[in-house]
TrEMBL record:
Family: Belongs to the YajQ family.
Superkingdom assignment: Bacteria
Keywords, ordered alphabetically: Nucleotide-binding
Any one Gene Ontology cellular component term annotated for this protein: cytosol
InterPro entries: UPF0234-like_C (IPR035571), UPF0234_N (IPR035570), YajQ-like_sf (IPR036183), YajQ/Smlt4090-like (IPR007551)
Record lineage: Bacteria, Bacillati, Bacillota, Clostridia, Eubacteriales
Heme among keywords: no
Gene Ontology molecular function terms on file: nucleotide binding
Native species: Sulfobacillus harzensis
Protein name per UniProt: Nucleotide-binding protein HIJ39_14720
Length: 167
């Protein structure tokens, strides 16, 4: 009788690469010609995973947001992890933007993914486990078919497949 195999579907960025991208954005903000003489602040709240960009309104803020996105993409951090908030003006023609780094799969989306997996008709069992989804089954081919199916779908978040186990 075959043993049960499983894998986890997660949505989690590489946090060290996120920190590297933030650091590179700070460095570029200090050295880039069009940012010279501008008072630019880039703060990162590690507990809440929020980046705060504080810069002059208009073109400078737009350029700073673009630089952050470029640095994240260059460090292989998907832009689907970034949730740019609205630009908030706070006087003296300055603006602030909060960028939330999303991680984990929300329950509603996990249920949608779970339903899509069940709709394949394969002999696998998806289970929601907190901020991830565990898919288990007896056939490795079925599990690989699920991975290929999920890679081809767009659920609005970046999905990764970890913890592939054979029991």
């Amino acid at each position: 009788m075959p043993k049960e195999s499983s894998f986890d579907v997660v949505s989690e960025p590489d946090w060290s690469e996120v920190l590297n991208a933030i650091d590179q954005t700070r460095r570029e903000a200090n050295t880039r010609y069009d940012f010279r003489g501008q008072d630019i602040e880039i703060d990162y709240d590690a507990a809440n995973h929020v980046i705060t960009l504080d810069a002059p309104e208009g073109m400078v803020m737009d350029s700073l947001k673009t630089v952050l996105g470029e640095k994240m993409a260059r460090r292989s951090v998907s832009l689907k992890f970034l949730d740019f908030g609205p630009v908030e003006s706070h006087g003296m023609s300055r603006a602030r933007v909060s960028v939330t780094i999303k991680s984990g799969i929300e329950t509603d989306l996990a249920k949608k993914i779970q339903k899509a997996i069940r709709g394949l008709g394969l002999k696998v069992e998806p289970q929601i486990q907190g901020a991830s989804l565990r898919v288990s089954g007896k056939s490795r081919d079925d599990l690989q078919a699920v991975i290929q199916f999920l890679k081809g779908q767009d659920f609005g978040i970046e999905l990764a497949f970890t913890n592939f186990r054979t029991a």
